[in-house]
User: Which sequence fits this backbone?
């Protein structure tokens, strides 16, 4: 089975757009579901978790276990 390569920043942009659209804190599962809906493909939770973790603090604030808020930076 061939792996489909996504454009650089596609998942990142979908994650940020999701937070901007909701303007509230979200769980990793909520972000993943919204990203999957936006992109029309099955993005692994690990990709979402990794991006959030690597950008906290900075773009995101961890508000609880598996819950994040966009800081807008």
Assistant:
């Amino acid at each position: 089975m061939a792996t489909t390569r996504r454009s650089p920043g596609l998942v990142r942009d979908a994650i940020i757009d999701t937070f901007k659209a909701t303007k509230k804190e979200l769980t990793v599962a909520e972000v993943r579901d919204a990203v999957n809906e936006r992109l029309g493909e099955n993005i692994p939770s690990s990709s979402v978790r990794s991006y959030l973790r690597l950008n906290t603090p900075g773009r995101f604030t961890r508000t609880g276990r598996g819950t994040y808020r966009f800081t807008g930076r």
